[in-house]
Amino acid sequence: MVWALCVVVAGALVVMWGKGDESTAATASSVLAAVIGLFGVLAVWAWRRDPRQGHSSTGQLADATEVLARLVGRQWQEEATLRQLFAPAPLPVRWTDCPDVGVGEHRQLIGAPFSCGADRVEELAAAFRALPRGRLVALGPAGSGKTTFAVLLTLGLLRTRQESDPVPVLLSLGSFDPARESAHGWLSRRLAADYPALADAEVYGPTAIDDLVSGHRVLPVLDGLDELPGPARTAVLSALNDTLDTRTPLVLTCRTSAYTTAVTHAGVLTGAAVVEPTPVRPADALTLLRLATSPGPRHERWERLARHVHENPDGPAAQALTSPLLVGLARVVYADAVGHPCELADPCELADSERFPTASAIELHLLDALVPALYTRARRLRPADRRWEPERAHRHLTHLAVGLVRQGTHDLAWWQLYRWTPLARTWCRAALSAATAFALVCAGHLFSCLTIPGPSDIPVEVVLSYGGAVALALACMSFVAAWTAAGPGTRRDSLRAVLLIAACGYVAHSAPKGVWRMADHGIRAGVEYIVVASTLYGLSYLAVLYTAGSPVPPDMPSRGRLGMRHWRHRLPRAVATVVGMAVLTGAALNIHIATVAPWLPEGLAPGSIAPLNAWAYGLVAGLLFGSVQALLRWTRHTASPDDLTTPASSVRDDRRVCLLTGAAGAVLITLPDIPLVLSAAEVFPEDVSLFVLVVGYLWSKLPLVGPVGLVLALAACAWPHYTVARLLVAARGRLPWRLQSFLAEAHRLGILRQVGPVYQFRHARLRERLAHHAPLPRPRTTSPPTRAHTPG
Q1: d(CA 391, CA 398)
Q2: How far is residue 752's CA from residue 411's CA, in Å, rounded to a whole number?
Q3: For residue 438, which of 87, 168, 467, 697 is within the disulfide window of CB 3.0 to 4.6 Å?
Q4: How far apart are CA 578 and CA 627, in angstroms?
Q5: What is the DSSP letter of 341?
């Protein structure tokens, strides 16, 4: 790239040489020699010092492995604390070989029978390491504790991990689509998204994540194969067998029925032992529930229930207590309740066989009581905090569950919330961008009229015409961006896509007015306008799009923060970026002058710009453009190895990058206008410096032109789409206005769980109950509620 820039500069100077006299030729030769020398030094420096060249070293991979182990341990230890997995002790669930025929591998390949209790995490880790292939499939019905098993196994492997052992990483399979990416590529993408510190090429090298996956330094613990549709389960199982070699350690969880169906089409997971839990003993469950309850009257209630279960071992209550899910729900509803003992629910009600004739009836009762119990307890612990009333929280969670079911996913990814609203349609996003840009342009003109002394020299009809042109351009670019993003094998931020989108924006902006001029003033006048507009508008849109990306909602939020990490390595590259952009912009302007001048009359000919002014514009525009590029690159590649990725942190990071990108777009869109100022510099007093002239021009034009770049840049970020979608959904009363605060509270109470930057319902059965069965609580100001829609 450095030498390509050198060729462009040389070509521009050759053009100047051919049009000048001997003095111009000498000056061009000296400048050419200086430029070649400068870029030669930069090329050697970049080739030797760019950390993205080559591969990660053994030491870098070792450091990356330790950082990953520390982050994973913190993440799931905090999650285990919220789930109360170790308070007072894990539920004693025993996992043994699955007796079903046709779901497991040959005994010769998986070694001795597997048998271990999940409550003893060190023994669980030792039993897993005894497997010859290091592969395990955990099956079981809904609510059997498969996810808890995965969490306990992950923590146990981390606690007993040696230096050469792989790092267990618990991931949800909900985002894996084998039709779009390989298993290796998906694992690498998820590691980069959930643990962005590993993507720091200056510390861990350019290939750290890929080398960790391919070098078997990562143990994927893949949870929730059953959460995918039926055909997707078969495709995922086939992809794991086809793209991962049999030496890759792997843990997979799935419901028994779903895995049995997938195996009939894709075959078993190669080399994997298959285990399932034995039913929990009701006596063990009641022992844990008694230990979780403070001594006193409430403790005696568990004793009465224990006597009932002992006398009726086949009754509904005894059958319900064999499920880890129902034991956990009973603990939340009865054991963890806060308040006067007489006011709390009595677990003995589960012994009422007329009210609860089956274990399923007990399950539905506990699921319905979970959310009110948790929010009632939260209000009693914090009486002054009345943000989330139990009924309102239940209504919001119901809408949340319904939305996830309609989207066919278990992951609440905040940057995908726009899919729940009309913004999922391209024409809605295009109309919103166009209307916003038009309104901001009009508001900017009004602001200029109120703040700049004297009458405005821009007529209102010109402002409206310009606002309509940019609205049409933004709408066209939105449609083209959506079309390019949907194309197979096309990256949304590729240079080809950006050039195509900018070209369409330029045509939509300038062509109608050019045709109108052709009709009124002849073909030459229309061509003159279109050629001049190619400089003003085409380069404007290209500068913003190259900086921000295509104006479509991104697949993942932006990461990064302002910091001084590795500034000694990044500062020289930032300086090189600024210098390179300055020289390239100046060369491009000179080439444009030499090419366009014959087409235009003397009054409009850009050739009237003196060479000094052309290079001055190149320096001004290049310094600004290069500084923006360097700052955004610096921000997006700054991550701390001590920060965990959570939904809240990803929102903050994306908002920070979004606001910085929007400000950059508002400034960059004014760059192509600067040559007009430089061409008229001679009419200003000599004591007015070039810097003051350019800054004053930008200040006067920014309110009118800047909103266009702002809207175009914001359309390429996730946070604006999320904000608009959040407001639309909240205005309809389906989700709260302070959505992130509500989700964080639900996570703290144990209703939701965090998996990297996304939220999931902690219990899949709770999500299903809320979405398909639970009626909406009656709102205080609306008509009687209707039952949530059940698909099918």
Answers
A1: 11
A2: 11
A3: 467
A4: 6
A5: G
Positive or negative CA dihedral for 658, 664, 667, 672? negative
pLDDT tens-digit series, residues 128-163: 999 988 899 999 998 888 999 999 999 999 999 988
**In the sheet where 250-255 sits, what is the strand order?**
115-117, 94-97, 273-277, 135-140, 250-255, 218-223, 167-172
CA–CA dist 168, 150 (Å, integer): 10
Contact 9, 587 (CB under 8 A): yes
Q: Which residue from 202, 210, 263 is spatially nearest to 234, judged by alpha carbons?
A: 263
Structure tokens at 247: 């030496």
Distance from the Cα of residue 458 to its chain's centroid:
42
**Span 373-428, pLDDT tens digits:** 888 887 777 766 667 788 888 889 999 999 998 888 888 999 999 999 999 899 99
Q: b vs e for 542-579, b when ≥16 Cβ sit within 10 Å of the residue's Cβ?
A: bbbbbbbbbbbbbebbbbbbeeebbeeebeebbebbbb
In angstroms, what is the C-alpha Rg of the chain? 32
Beta bridge partners of 717: none
Residue 93: CB partners within 8 Å, gap ≥ 6? Answer: 117, 118, 119, 145, 148, 149, 277, 278, 280, 324
CB half-sphere exposure, 208, CA atoms < 13 A: 26
Q: At what angle are helices 256-266 and 230-243 packed, to 10 degrees?
A: 60
Q: Where are the beta strands (DSSP E) in 545-646?
A: none
**CA–CA separation, 25 and 287 (whole Å):** 94
Taking Cα atoms as reference points, which of 418, 401, 331 lies closest to residue 91?
331
Query: What global pTM score does this model have?
Result: 0.79
Amino acid at 508: A
Residue 69 gets the label, from left (phi > 0), alpha (psi -120 to 50) or beta, of: alpha
Residue 249's identity, in one-letter code, is P
Separation of alpha carbons 752 and 414, rounded Å:
14
Cα gap 367→49, rounded to integer Å: 58
Q: Which amino acid is located at 119 in the chain?
A: D
Q: Which two tokens stand for residue 342?
A: 């007489």
CA distances from 609 to 64, 543, 602, 679 (A): 54, 22, 12, 5
